[in-house]
Amino acid sequence: MANRAIFRRSITAAAPEHSASDDGLSASEKEAAAMEDTRSLKMAKKYLSLGGTRRSKIDDNIIDTRKWESEPQEAAKFWKETIEPLNDDKRKQVESFLPSISDE
């Protein structure tokens, strides 16, 4: 079920909300944004593959995470060293690929 949630979010995150001509982004900016989504998705998948238990909570476009269970030391270390230090926007991108608390 977690893989389906990740896949669904990756499709949703990649889908444009409006036409490319209306977004005002240059081709290089669009490419950079697509690469960042890929990095964010890879980080989320790596965290989950290590046994990470955090879940995203998305409410009114505010993204947060919840963790009720303990998680393996490797997952906690990866989160603390790789995801936690990211700036808010990049961390929120990673968090958006985690399974949602609404999915459970």
What does this structure look like?
With 104 residues, the protein is mostly helical. The chain has one domain (2-13, 34-103). The chain has four helices and two strands. The chain has a two-stranded antiparallel ribbon.
Helix and strand arrangement:
Blueprint: H1 2-14, H2 27-49, E1 55-59, E2 62-66, H3 73-83, H4 88-96
In short:
The protein is mostly helical and 104 residues long. It has one domain. It contains four helices and two strands; from the N terminus they run ααββαα.
- The SSE order reads HHEEHH
- In the sheet with the most strands, the strands line up as 1-2
Kindly estimate the percentage of residues that lie in beta strands according to DSSP: 5-15%
Percent helix range: 40-55%
Question: How many strand units?
Answer: 2
Q: Averaged pLDDT, please? A: 77
Low-confidence stretches: 3-8, 10-22
Q: From the helix content, strand content and strand pairing, which structural class follows?
A: mainly alpha
Biggest pleated sheet: 2 strands, antiparallel
What count of helical segments does DSSP give? 4
Radius of gyration, in angstroms, nearest whole number? 14 Å
Key structural traits:
single chain, 104 residues, mainly alpha, two-stranded antiparallel sheet, 4 helices, 10% strand, globular, disordered N terminus
